[in-house]
Specification:
Blueprint (H helix, E strand, L loop, with lengths): L1 E5 L3 H12 L6 E5 L2 H10 L4 E5 L7 H11 L5 E5 L4 H10 L3 E4 L4 H11 L5 H4 L7 E6 L2 E6 L5 E7 L4 E8 L8 H18 L10
Parallel strand pairs: 1-2, 1-3, 3-4, 4-5
Antiparallel strand pairs: 6-7, 7-8, 8-9
Helix pairs in contact: 2-3
Length: 207
C-alpha cells in the first residue's frame, strides 16, 4: 500500500513514519512537508492513502484536502491533528476525509483505521460470531454500529475510563424481520470489540 505522509514538522514525520512502519499492513511511505508539495505528488503519482496534518503553514490541511478530493473524489485521506476540535473535524468529513486521527497514535489505531476505510473486517470482528454482521465506524467520540442486513443503526458515545458506551441514537428499520431489541446487545459488544481492537479502551476480563 502506497502512503503519502504530509506534515510540516520533520520530528512529526519521523515519529509517524515509525508508527506507520509498525502497522500489520505493508506500507510504502513517501513524505512531503507542505500542502502544495502534497498536491503536486498526489496529482503525479498513485497513492492508496494520504495521512495529512491539519495545522500547516501556507496551504493548510483543510485546503489541501479540498484540492486532493477535487483531483480524486475517491481518495482515502486521513486527517491528523493534536487538537480535539469537533467543528474542524466535521468540516474535514464534509470535505471528504475518510477518518480523523489524533496525535499521538499507535500502530493498532492505524490498523483499525485502514481496516475501516478500505472496508475490511478487523481481525477480532472477523472471528466474532454473530457480531460480524455489523459495520462499524469510529469518528471522535462517536461509534456508529449498523447491522448490514437490517439497516438498524446504533450510534454510541464512548468513554475511555471506565470503558463504557452511552446510546443517544437508534435508527430502526420498521420493515426488518429482526427487532431492534434483539440486536442491541450484540451491537454494543461489536462496538466495544472495535474500540478494544483500535486500542482506544481496555476491558477488564472476567477470571
Amino acid at each position: 500500500m502506497r502512503v503519502l505522509l504530509v506534515d510540516d514538522s520533520r520530528v512529526s514525520l519521523k515519529v509517524m513514519r515509525k508508527v506507520l512502519g509498525s502497522s500489520i499492513f505493508h506500507l510504502n511511505i513517501e513524505e512531503v512537508c507542505t500542502g502544495v508539495d502534497a498536491v503536486v505528488r498526489f496529482n503525479s503519482e498513485a497513492f492508496d492513502v494520504v495521512f495529512l496534518d491539519v495545522n500547516m503553514p501556507g496551504l493548510d490541511g483543510h485546503a489541501t484536502l479540498a484540492k486532493l478530493m477535487l483531483a480524486n473524489p475517491q481518495a482515502k485521506v486521513v486527517m491528523i491533528s493534536s487538537e480535539h476540535n469537533g467543528l474542524r473535524e466535521r468540516e474535514a468529513i464534509r470535505l471528504g476525509a475518510a477518518a480523523i486521527m489524533h496525535k499521538p497514535f499507535f500502530p493498532t489505531e492505524i490498523d483499525a483505521v485502514l481496516h475501516r476505510i478500505f472496508g475490511l473486517l478487523s481481525p477480532k470482528l472477523a472471528t466474532g460470531g454473530c457480531i460480524r454482521n455489523f459495520g462499524i465506524k469510529i469518528l471522535g467520540r462517536t461509534i456508529a454500529v449498523e447491522h448490514v442486513e437490517t439497516g438498524h443503526l446504533f450510534e454510541y458515545v464512548w468513554f475511555r475510563e471506565p470503558p463504557y458506551l452511552r446510546l443517544p441514537f437508534v435508527r430502526a428499520n420498521e420493515t426488518a424481520t429482526i427487532p431492534v431489541a434483539d440486536l442491541m446487545g450484540n451491537a454494543k459488544k461489536a462496538a466495544m470489540l472495535e474500540l478494544e481492537n483500535a486500542n482506544l479502551v481496555h476491558q477488564e476480563k472476567a477470571a
